[in-house]
Amino acid sequence: MYIATYTASANIAVVKYWGKRNEELILPYNNSLSFTMDDNLQTITTVMFSEKFSQDELWLNGKKMDLQKGKKSHVLPVDLLRKKADIDLPVRIVSKNCFPTGAGFASSASGVAALVCATSKALNLTLSGKELSMLARQGSGSASRSVYGGFVEWLKGDLEDGTDSFAQQIAPHDHWPELRNVIAVVETEEKKVSSRHGMKTTTLTSALYEKRLQYLEGVIPKMKEAVLQKDFATFAELTMRESNSMHASMLDTWPPIMYLSDGSREVIYMVEDLNAELGKTVAGYTFDAGPNAHIYTTEEYESVIKERLEKIAHVKNIEVCKVGQGPQQISDEAQFL
Ligand code: ADP
Ligand code: DP6
Ligand code: CO
Known about the structure:
By secondary structure, the protein is α+β, with helices and mostly antiparallel strands. It has helices at residues 76-85, 107-122, 129-137, 143-146, 195-205, 208-228, 232-251, 262-278, 302-310; strands at 2-9, 11-15, 20-22, 27-28, 32-36, 42-49, 57-60, 63-65, 91-97, 151-154, 167-171, 179-185, 283-286, 293-298, 317-321, 328-330.
């Protein structure tokens, strides 16, 4: 039996990936930037290979999932790793997300990153961060960034074989210890339009999409500089505008994609009002492919943001994340406790 267990955390992008130039290899149109979160947005995955298993199985959050052979799926990196290790045994994957799956909390990022790290360890492969990132990319684009902790950039690359499209750490998890991500949960149901399907229709139909790509070219260096300098006001403003740009291109998609809900909009107004009231930018919202708000702020303003969120009826729950360290190997028993 080959076995290993890993945890990995979701990452919340501040320059987001929304569109593939190559669907097969998962190559994006733009570089993206994110912070990997701590264990409040965590997946724990055990991967086992054994001749005793009759077929491949994936158990996600206690339910057996359908693994259609040959279908492009989030678990494709397991096949790639099995070939690399030259071990042709059936696999059993047991995974749980400690937060809602498919609801805009980037479960595909933490899920696939944990899967790649556990599989490579179980198969006794010693791979570099770059190799792990490229493998995770092929399961879910955003997962390429979750193989690292801290502040991470996924390079889009220029080559058509994908060998120059991988993520790298720009700053470690303790670079900006005061940074917080306050999550306002407004909906935990699985989204109707998956990220994979949604971004495909945006690239095919949105006229705004090309403008967004031009806009991002200018944003990326400014965002990196703001994070490295810990210039919160610039960072937060760029973050909000980038999220709005992505959601504008989603609305401009045909048929339109609307991930934001009334609850999301109330959070946007709350952040706008708070920043205006204090006369400085102390909070910046961003939304992934879902209605739940991620408010970047600093430790100092965490409690005032929580107080304001508690007054919004649509907000069902509030979680606070710090920047996390990235994937960790843990004991196999931990999965089953
Ligand atoms: P999210 O916003 O949660 O990332 P996506 O639409 O991108 O939503 O992806 C959700 C899909 O990711 C799930 O339907 C499942 O196929 C895959 N996924 C989520 N969690 C895991 C996991 N722990 N292990 C393997 N695959 C996962
Ligand atoms: C809005 O990585 O989930 O969260 O590559 O098809 O699996 P696939 O999509 P996915 O898309 C993430 C979209 C996003 C932005 C981001 O995380 O950069
Ligand atoms: Co996802």
